[in-house]
Structures are given as structure tokens and as C-alpha cells.
Amino acid sequence: MPFNTSLVFIVFISLFLSCSKEIVEPLTPQIIPKPLSQTIKEGHFTITNNTGLDFNEDFSVAGNFLKDFIESGSSISLKSGSSILIEKDETIQGLEGYSLDVFLGKIIIKAKTDVGAFYAVQSLRQLLPISLENNTFTGKQITVQSISITDKPQFSYRGMHLDVVRHMFSVAFIKKYIDALAMLKMNTFHWHLTDDQGWRIEIKKYPKLQEVAAFRNQTLIEHFSAEPQRFDSKKYGGFYSQEQIKEVVAYAQNRFITVIPEIEMPGHAQAAIAAYPELGCTKEALQVAETWGVFEDIFCAGSENTFTFLQDVLDEVIPLFPGKYIHIGGDEAPKTHWKACDACQQRIEDNKLKDEHELQSCFMVEC
């Protein structure tokens, strides 16, 4: 009997269709972090020039962020009205919790606090077209999938770290970085400002930190383990002025993000010692580090000059950052020079310490 390819094709298609769903369900929006509860509904809400936004002063950060985000990313201008409503609800769980309901004719956000409402806006932001993020949206209206969300953070500390020493980023980039943190409902920006390869924060009492420590003569190309090592022969660096620091901190605060600066000690200090050799045990002239890795030149724990310097630095740093914490590093501090340093050994003896490790503990308490 001849092989009927047409019949086989028809049977295959029939089997394929019989295995697929009769009704295609709408895709679940991929909101990050995943909300505690979300339910997709039929239909959508449409944002146009006729859409109104209503919020009171208790929710000014959340409300203004939503208004600015839509208007800066599109040609749509929101007017006063209650098509999109942000309102207080004391029954919402947690100070950072919220509910977000997108109906056919209305969007309602409920929260106890402005930060909760702000996180609701970030979830709503992720339901909007991605082209709003880079100002390429050209439509006359924005459609939003109907959905019901109830959410609150699982962790109280939600943070990201940015190293601006090995590679320095512009203030504009850092603001974009903070915007990304805000969209993901993170509340902490850990800013790594000092290390062996550079010093990135202005300290007015010590100008050589800006003149010397902020710049390295060249930078290693490729991985540290590559042989032979190659360098780019380009001077590299820079620093953030205290006014720029204030600008970044204010920008973060307006997105409910606390900035934690990191000022490394006693290790990762070669850039600072290159500017002020008296801060090291050997007092030798050094270069700002041009490679990666761990370096033996760390702040001298036996010198009062070190503690005066670090206290002066912190006295300028602390007022710039209104959060509770300043990170002072403490990692990767080789004790090679401390073991050979008469002043460090004298401090160990004077304080009845066991060894250089206890000296580091003493060092951190002193600072």
C-alpha cells in the first residue's frame, strides 16, 4: 500500500493540536523580586493624556516618581484625577508592604508608608513597556495588564555593592545604577570608595589624596595570572567631590536607598600610603597599585599619625552619609610589615596583645 504523506501530516497536526491548550492564557508578568502574591486578570488598563493621578503629600515620593517616569519616557502627560490612585491603608502588612490592583478602568495602590507605595510603583513600572526606560516609547497610549498584587520584602537589608576604585564610574552612571536598584526594591547601595588602586572621595584636609592617591600611572591588562604581565601605559583615576557625593546620596534617598561608603582599613591602603608615606610601617615612597591582588603595605598600627589621619578622614566622611553605618573594610590585611615594625610591636606589648591579629582587632576599635 502506498505511503500517504498527506495523511501522516494531517494526523501529526491533529495530535499536536490535541496536546495544546484550547485557550492561550496571558503570560504572567515577570516582576523581580517575585511578589508574595499575584493574580492575572482579564483585560488591561490604558494610560493616555486623559488619565489622572491622585496622591496626597504622604505619598509624594512614590506619586512624583510615577508621574515623572511616565512623562519623561513618553509624550503622555498625566493630569489630576483618580484614574490612578495611591492611598493609605493601615491594614497593609509591614511598613514596606503594598497592594497593587490594575482594573479595566482604574489602578489602585495601597500602602502604609511612602516607601511601600514606592515599591508598588516599581512593580507597576515593570508592567509598563521597556521602551519607557530609555525614552524610546512612541505610542499615544500605554496598556497595562490587569493584575492584583500583594507584596512586602522578605529581607530588611537588600543591597548591592559597586567598586569604583578599579574602574571609576561617572555620577550619571551611578544614578542609573541606583535607578536599577530602586526598580528591584533594594534599599542599600554599598559604595567601595578606597583601595590599593585608587582613592575616590575628596578629603579636604588631605589634598594629596586627590592629587596622588586618586590616580595610578597605568593599569594591568588581562588577568592578574597572565604571563608576561602587560600594562596599558595610561594614567587612570579621578575622585568624587564632596558635592558630587551629596548629589548621589540625595538621589538615592529620594528612592529610599541608603548609601554605605566603604573606607578600607588597615589593608587595601596602598593608594593612601602612596600619597602620605608616613602612614605606612616602612615610610618608603610607593606607587598607587597598578595590578590587582593583596598588597603588604597597610596602615601602620603603631603610629599615632595613622589614627589621626583616619579619624580626620572619617570626620569628613560621616557628615556626607546620613545612614547608620560606615564600612571600614578589615579584610585582607597582611601582617608582614607589622611583624617587622618596632612601633607595631610596641603597641602589642603596651596593650598586652597576643599577636598581630589581636593588634588588628585593637586597630579597628581605636578607629
Automatic annotation (TrEMBL):
<dbReference type="Pfam" id="PF00728">
    <property type="entry name" value="Glyco_hydro_20"/>
</dbReference>
<feature type="active site" description="Proton donor">
    <location>
        <position position="332"/>
    </location>
</feature>
<dbReference type="Pfam" id="PF02838">
    <property type="entry name" value="Glyco_hydro_20b"/>
</dbReference>
<protein>
    <recommendedName>
        <fullName>beta-N-acetylhexosaminidase</fullName>
        <ecNumber>3.2.1.52</ecNumber>
    </recommendedName>
</protein>
<feature type="domain" description="Beta-hexosaminidase bacterial type N-terminal">
    <location>
        <begin position="28"/>
        <end position="151"/>
    </location>
</feature>
<keyword id="KW-0378">Hydrolase</keyword>
<dbReference type="InterPro" id="IPR025705">
    <property type="entry name" value="Beta_hexosaminidase_sua/sub"/>
</dbReference>
<dbReference type="GO" id="GO:0005975">
    <property type="term" value="P:carbohydrate metabolic process"/>
</dbReference>
<dbReference type="InterPro" id="IPR015882">
    <property type="entry name" value="HEX_bac_N"/>
</dbReference>
<dbReference type="InterPro" id="IPR029018">
    <property type="entry name" value="Hex-like_dom2"/>
</dbReference>
<feature type="domain" description="Glycoside hydrolase family 20 catalytic">
    <location>
        <begin position="155"/>
        <end position="365"/>
    </location>
</feature>
<comment type="similarity">
    <text>Belongs to the glycosyl hydrolase 20 family.</text>
</comment>
<dbReference type="GO" id="GO:0030203">
    <property type="term" value="P:glycosaminoglycan metabolic process"/>
</dbReference>
<dbReference type="GO" id="GO:0016020">
    <property type="term" value="C:membrane"/>
</dbReference>
<keyword id="KW-0326">Glycosidase</keyword>
<dbReference type="GO" id="GO:0004563">
    <property type="term" value="F:beta-N-acetylhexosaminidase activity"/>
</dbReference>
<dbReference type="InterPro" id="IPR017853">
    <property type="entry name" value="GH"/>
</dbReference>
<dbReference type="InterPro" id="IPR015883">
    <property type="entry name" value="Glyco_hydro_20_cat"/>
</dbReference>
